[in-house]
Amino acid sequence: MFTKILIANRGEIACRVIRTARKMGIATVAVYSDADRDAVHVEMADEAVHIGPSPAAQSYLVPEKIIAACKATGAQAVHPGYGFLSERAAFCEALEAEGIVFIGPKPKAIRAMGDKIESKKFANAAKVSTVPGWLGVIENADHAEKIAGEIGYPVMIKASAGGGGKGMRIAWSQPEVRDGFDRARSEAKSSFGDDRVFIEKFVVDPRHIEIQVLADAHGNALYLGERECSIQRRNQKVAEEAPSPFLDARTRKAMGEQSVALARAVDYQSAGTVEFIVDKDRNFYFLEMNTRLQVEHPVTELVTGIDLVEQMIRVAAGEKLALKQSDVKLNGWAVESRLYAEDPYRNFLPSIGRLTRYRPPEEGQFGDVVIRNDTGVTEGSEISMFYDPMLAKLCTWAPTRLAAIDAMSEALDSFIVDGIEHNIPFLAALMQHPRWREGLISTGFIAEEYPDGFAPVIPNDDDKAVLASIATAVELLRRDRLDRLGGRLAPHSGALKRDWVVKIGEDYLSASVLEGMISIPMEIDLSIEGGKALTVASDWRPGDLIWRGTVGQRKVAAQVRPVANGFRIAWKGVSVTARAMLPRIAELERLMPEKVAPDTSKLLLCPMPGLVVSIAVTEGQEVKTGETLAVVEAMKMENVLRAERDLVVAKLNAKPGDSLAVDAVIMEFV
């Protein structure tokens, strides 16, 4: 067994590998760029080596720097994580030439399966069912249009060396092919250094289901069940689960056996994933094989009890698998939510900045529920524009699917992230969505359910009653604390006031205190809008960011943050400003004029911090609705900014290569 390994990656996956290596008694070496000098994975590792500037192309993607770090520290093996160099056969060979072990498959398997075009050719030859498509070289956009027309719309344009939704576009008609082809090639080149793309038929309403395989160098191979990965946005997975609520035992067995046969055909040695698209009739088609550890591997670990990173290390060290297929049992249900630094209210645009607060829910087993959080950041970490926007992978396990989802819902409500925008509100709303809870999903779920983007969830009457109850309880304690401050000329509130008005968003609700005293812990009876009594119980103290307790029969964990004249309450995807007032103050508050937002209709604002890739217009140019104005890159994704109406460009305030802050003015119109 190895005594020291180097992790050629960063962030949460580097931390994840370090934890298992530490458990196995193996010393670890981290590598880091300028941007990651103070990163968590650097602090966790036994040693750390600086490998260059912040851009990945000058640090994490340079094989020579990784090899030099191995030599300098005496690392015997390299775990590549995912992304970066994890599927580069040439990197694997370079390591072998230096006597360093690659913790992953051999170059033959990486070449056969790591390239999407070659993998489909190989799968066809091996009699594996694949989606109709064009696997040859596509010369230019005209050639792409011709191929798409022959296959039939819609089509998927994909980067051959891609992954994670990068370099991927769906074209529903001929006009969309050319732009999709150009964008896919550009993203592929910047993300993977390889601009080759291919085109295949896009299966409508498919599910994305993948099989985890594990194989050693002694001819042993098995599958560890499946993962449902259909909740995607822009082909980037958002939430995963294991097992899939859609597969039956027969389909699971067929997919698993086919995946193992494919792994054996290329002499696969390590953990790998065979991805399929599955139609509504449970027909499945080979999509690709990822010759590395997947981002979503924790859900498989939770339902099988098998540490995949440990298995990868043992296989790379030449050990035989200690498992047989009959030993693999799927136990319970696991759900994973990917927490991203992005603003769900602004079409999920990237967000960068410093984490002024970062407090995940407590990990461990709590009764029948397990909570796990794989992360690579901590409070004070800087989220930069150079890398993937993932903050963490929050996972829950429970005996049943709905119990795992409910556990996830509570965990998300308890996850505190301040300083940047993040997608927790969207994930929390997803956990309440009827289609998700029933398992009636496809890869088009987000586009179908949120066609105009994600907007703040509007609470129903029952939810408003809960929010009003929390706001009243919080305000009562706040006023009681003011009364107890020394040196005050007179009590702030005097005797307990029984009648209140609570403003939830733009709605005013009456709240009456029926029974109870102001204390910590608190237990009072409230009536909201004259309804039946709700017993509100909590041990919340002023200053706590999470209000935990019960409102009536409902168990509640809600985030409470003070804002001007009230509180911001976030709960189950709902995020509202709440203010509990005495009736006279509420009467006067209704008379206050509303602020009018500034007119930005004649400005193109940068929607996220990013790098200007191109400006498609000139000053004085007339532009029609839908035409491209500029392209901005952030966190390895290119975002096309288009005209929302006919207009004339008056002034350009930015040029290609400029780094812009959010809401910076790119151009002005007349």
From TrEMBL:
It catalyses: propanoyl-CoA + hydrogencarbonate + ATP = (S)-methylmalonyl-CoA + ADP + phosphate + H(+). One of its GO terms (molecular function) is acetyl-CoA carboxylase activity. It holds the Pfam family PCC_BT. Residues 594-670 form the Lipoyl-binding domain. Transmembrane segments: none annotated. Pathway: Metabolic intermediate metabolism; propanoyl-CoA degradation; succinyl-CoA from propanoyl-CoA: step 1/3. PROSITE patterns: ATP_GRASP, BC, BIOTIN, BIOTINYL_LIPOYL, CPSASE_1, CPSASE_2. SMART domains: Biotin_carb_C. Keywords: ATP-binding, Biotin, Ligase, Lipid degradation, Lipid metabolism, Magnesium, Manganese, Metal-binding, Nucleotide-binding. Residues 1-451 form the Biotin carboxylation domain. InterPro entries: ATP-grasp, BC-like_N, Biotin_BS, Biotin_carboxylase_complex, Biotin_carboxylation_dom, Biotin_COase_C, Biotin_lipoyl, CPAse_ATP-bd. This is propionyl-CoA carboxylase.
